[in-house]
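Why run this: before we spend reagent on co-expression, it is cheaper to look at a predicted model of the complex and decide which construct boundaries make sense. The entries below are exactly what would go into the expression plan.
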Amino acid sequence: MTQPIRLKTPLSGADVELLKVGDRILINGIIYTGRDAAHQRLFDLLKEGRDLPMDIKGQIIYYVGPTPAKPGQVFGSAGPTTSYRMDAYAPLLIERGLKGMIGKGMRSDAVKEAMRKHKAVYFAATGGAGALLAKRIKKAEIVAYEDLGPEAIRRLEVEDLPVIVVNDVRGNDLYIEGERRYRKG
Amino acid sequence: MREINVKLITEKVRDLCIKANTDLGEDVLQAFDRAMEKEESPLGLEILKELKENARIAREENVPICQDTGFAVVFVELGQEVHLVGGSLNGAIEEGVRQGYRDGYLRKSICHPFSRLNTGDNTPAIIHTEVIPGDKIKITVAPKGGGSENMSRVVMLTPSDGVEGIKKFVVQRVKESGSNPCPPTIVGVGIGGTFEQAALLAKRSLLRPLGNKNPDPELDQLESEILTEINKLGIGPQGLGGRTTSLAVHILMMPCHIASFPLAVNIQCHAQRHKEVVI
Ligand code: SF4
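The model came back. Tokens follow.
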């Protein structure tokens, strides 16, 4: 297995273009959290032509709903949640400059098309590896929607957060290709 | 009659909720090791290594294995010689869940089906009680995550579908589930009984430690045949391709009505959490 690639956020179109499906990536820098309810709000703001609570240009959103942090812990267990629930909102965010999403599970054709067109990628983090992923989060602060509790948007500073490129800008999909490669009979 | 104060049950359930969510069983870790020997995909191998490392961190630091700390499913085997005092059995279990999810910093994931308003304390619990001979109580807490539970199904096959019908349905279910239940999975299968009993059998089958054979040789054979077919699918760890789609298939079976052939498939993710205590 080749060594993982270190990637620093924010990402440019050129950074993203270099990534291909199956690449193991260690993300460093700032990323944002967001899941169902937060996405609905971001989407509504954009639809109304209003500003978002954070600049998403070049950024990565991590689909996660962590456990509450224990005293002394930066962040609770933080594995990815299933991404398809964000499919309705993702294309618009990508169009507005979002460069990456971290989650688990397959994306819709509309999301894949948006990634291809506007140069963005989708990463999978290991579902269920919540304890391991939490350790790579060095700082966390709420930037919006505190009322959503675990679903509030947080700004995370991560160090070597391990993910895998599942959809690249060329329209490849590792969920489809991986299964095809190892299928027997 | 042996008297037991339900306070003790609350205490035990609290501890079991925390322990189940932070301490992955040795049987699961050994199943990861066996899978790593067979995994052909380099990426799949890395993922299996990550899962082992994750379990180690969770155990050492006493933090949840997965952020989805699940619905608290509680199995109770209540000895009929036991006299419970100090409150109700279910009330004591609910209180144990409440305390466990609070004190263990576990995520509260239970909500109203329509409004989606969180109940705030991870109750109600799902409690399955069986009265058995003896003067002891056995309590098993098995937190169940949403991702894998959502991929589960009950189907009423027709008797003519036979064993082939079972194989086909189970393999197809795993195939369609793809990456959603966080493979590698454990596939719980319930055959026979009624509609609801089949589902319960499937869920109960998941309590058997991994690596333990089914005591019924016919079912043991069927389990390994289905597992072989599943692991030919190529879904692999996390659905990114590979040999290890499932770690095991577990079957429980009972007689059914002459007109029916119920089948339930309960998919369990690699975060195969359950802990038990005997009082
Ligand atoms: S399916 Fe299991 S491992 Fe995956 S997120 Fe849900 S509980 Fe965690």
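The pocket of iron/sulfur cluster is lined by residues A 79, 127-128; B 66, 68, 145-148, 181-182, 269, 271 (CB under 6 Å). The helical segments of chain B are 6-22, 26-38, 42-61, 89-103, 146-149, 162-177, 195-205, 217-230. Bring this page to Monday's planning discussion.
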